[in-house]
Each structure stands twice: as C-alpha cells, then as structure tokens.
Amino acid sequence: MCGIVGLHLRDPNLYPRLGTLLETMLCQVIERGPDSAGVAVYGDTRRCPDGYAAVSVLADRVDKDSDDAPKDALAGLLPDIVVTEAGDTTVLAAPVTVDELLAAVRQGLPRARVVGSGTDLTVYKGTGHPHELAVTYDLAGAQGWQGLAHTRMATESAVTPEGCHPFSVGPDQCLVHNGSFANHATIRRDLRFAGIEFDSENDSEVGARFLAARLAKGDDLQMALRALCEAFDGFYTLLVTSKDGFAVVRDAIACKPAIIAETSQWVAMASEFRALAGLPGIEDARIYEPEPERVYAWAR
Amino acid sequence: MGTLTRELATVDLSVTSVRELNSELHAPTAQAYEVLHPQGAHALAAGLKDPITVDIRGHAGYYAAGMNDGGTVTVHGSAGTGVAENMMSGTVRVTGDASQSAGATAHGGLLVIQGSASMRCGISMKGVDIVVGGDIGPMSAFMAQAGRLVVCGDAGDGLGDSIYEARLYVRGKARSLGADCVEKPMREEHLTELAGLLKAAGFAHDAADFRRYGSARTLYHFTVHNEY
Prior knowledge:
A: 300 residues, Glutamine Phosphoribosylpyrophosphate, subunit 1, domain 1, Alpha-Beta Plaits, 2 domains, 7-stranded antiparallel sheet, 15 strands, B: 228 residues, mainly beta, Pectate Lyase C-like
C-alpha cells in the first residue's frame, strides 16, 4: 500500500500552518503504511534559517553511542551550527554552502548516513507509528511553503529508517513512491556503472537517483519524470518536490491511487480524499485524479 | 428487516464509528438514514440488504454502498474507489465525481454519477446500469460482461477492452477503443432503452446524440494463429 500526502502552498498567510495541515493529512493515511513515516518540509526556518544549508542524517544505529554528539563532533568544523534531534534523524544546519556542510558532516560524523540536503529542505525519517513519529519530528510546529509525507508498508526492502521515504538524493529534491518498480535492479546497475552510488537496496531510491541524475543534467521536473516513465516498469504513483515546486506522475495502468485538489491558496495531492478533507477551502477546490503517464507539475 | 421504529435516523460520523453505522444499516430500525460528516471514510453503507434510503452528506471513501442489494444510497459529494462495487440491486447516486472502478463487477441496480468517473468505470460489470453525467477515465468497461454504461461526456483511452455483451453509449468522444470494442449502429431498440436509462438517471439529453459501442466478438474463441 503506502500513503502519500503533499501540500504546496500558494498563499503565504498559510506558511505558519504548513506543519499542522501536513500532520492532519498524514494522520489520514496511517492505515496505508503503519510501519514507518517520513516527512520533508521546505522553508522551515526554525531548523534551516535563511542563509543556512541543512543536512539530515541518520546516526549509525549500531554504533550510535560511540559517536560523539553531532554538535560536539562538528563544533570545530562549522560556525553557528543548529542541531535538531528528531528520533532516528538529526538535522544539522550551518551558514555555509551545502557542499561545505556535507563535507564537514562526512568528516565529523563518518558513520552517519545523509538522507537529505539543501538550502531550503529538512527531511525526517524513522520507523514506528506514523502519528508518534509526527510528534517526534514536531511536525505540528513546522512552518514553510511546501511539504510532503509518506507512510510506508514495506514490500521491496526491509523496515529501516534508510528504507523509509522520502528519498532525497539531490539538493532540495525529494521523491515519495507508492507502488513497486519491477526493473529497479537493471536501472540501478546502469546508474552504478555511470558512477552513481546507492545507500540502500530500495527500489524507490533507484527512481530518486534516476531523477537526480536527469535534473543534474538540466532537465526540469516535467522532462525528468517523462524520462522516468520511459525507463521504469512497474506500479507507481510518485510525488516529487524540488526547490522550484511539486510534480505528480502515475504509471500507465495507474492502479496506485492519487487525488489532486487545487485552490487559489494551495495545491495538494494525496493517496485518498480523506487526507484532503481537512484542508481550508476544500469545499471549493478543483478535485481530480491524475491520468496515467501524464506529468502534473506546479512551479513556485 | 425487523420492525421499523423510526422514519428517519441521523448518524453523525464525527461521534459514531463506521462499524456502528453499518451494523445499524444491516439490521435497520428506520426507513431512512442521514449520515453526517463522512469525511471520506471507507465502506459507508456497504452491504445493505433492505430497501432503505441512505443519504450521505459529504464525500465518501472507498467502496461506498458496495454490494448494495436493494438500498437507495445517495452520496451528496464525491465517492472514492469502487463505489457500488458488486451491487446486486437498488440505486446508488453520487452527486459529485467518482474515483476508479465505479460499479466494478456489479450485477444489477442503477448507479448514477452526476459528475465524472475516473478510470476503470464499470470494469467487469455483470448486469448493472451505470449512467455518468460527465466523462469517464481510461480503461473503462474493461471485460464488461452485461449491463449498460451510459456516458454523457467523453470516454478515455481503451474503452471497452475485451468487452463481452455489455452495451456502451457515449454522447461525446471515445478517445480510443480497446481490443475487440467497436462502434455499432443505433437501432430503434437502443434509442428506446437509452431514453429509459437517461430518464431513470434524471438527465435530459436526447438519445439520438449518443453513439453505441460493443463487442466485435472476435476474442470469444481461441484461434489457431493466436497460438505461440
């Protein structure tokens, strides 16, 4: 199964409410994926202040206790670091470039796994009950202009924080997936041959790496997702976000559910209508289901 | 159906569970029910066996009025996947849009969707009548076996793929036809049955504006050149 929700705000007056709206949406898709939940928030200046870069990491779970506390480990390497512990995830932010922050994290926390990076993005991943995880992430307190969340019912790989969505493998990019890719091993092999490294055996990560490679070559979200539809077999409803916006695509058979609602204040996407039912102005929204293999994209 | 103690009962799903609602509807004590605050919940009014009336005031989730056998259910809003799936008899009306697989495998009764229906509307329908006021999505009436599907708007790609004996009437355009689905002439008997369906569903369209599609019957039997 798996549940997806995403919210792209057009009305800045709603930015302070992003977290509460997203939490309400997430709680309506818990039954679709009760084993883990991940969240991505764009524009949450509590965790990533203006002018800062942020990196989300999973601490090495085996040797967690042997690592220095992240703040201590990075204190000599970075000025003014902001550290947010949120369960399995730690968000680190500093007034440097993303590449400088990533280099410092790899030096100071060599066993930590990077699960998100950018200048506007904070990512949280973990296993457990999605509602409890939302509390752990303090999702209700989040603010920002765009966010997504995923509840996972694992089918293709283990229930671990690494296997949890979203997959964020390029700067300020995120992908969440409901479904399963049939030819992910073949595409992973091709991408590895091209020099791309993988963090997990998860099929969705292959989709994220494929998109990141296309975006790095200059594709926009629309073009990159068209290319994904050509290359990938299997079942998928995908929600992909970047610093520019928000895109949805489904496979040719479109068995995995998706519903989109739009108002002048926001665009929202979810696996089921009930996740949209609590949004302000839903009664006047344009509500529709995305057609197979058609890319729907919204830019900021 | 036991003794009815009430004319109308109101169930508010903000304070009552779906299970409690459906338990009541399966052994009804009222003739008519009004369901408030559905908020897209699943399986609302599924499995009705008695000729009662249920008005759902808001959007319904998956399988609303599924397996209906004699009830009259109206969703005053939109319905999720599989509305009236496997209906046996009765009437289900959706005032808004319906998600995928509306009326899937349904054997009888009338399903009216006043808005549009998404993909796979009427998949494997086995005798139900479905009337859609707007458009229907791709892959609709896939393996449709019996019954009538009336579309007052357009049909998406692959209409009627591998269809058996269901009759499809489309007022707008069919974007493409599936394997073994062909356009057929509208004879007098078809105009008459279509006019009856439109009237039953409450639409004022002229039956003469519709085209009829059905099975070319070339997939009924294996043929030698289909062998591998």
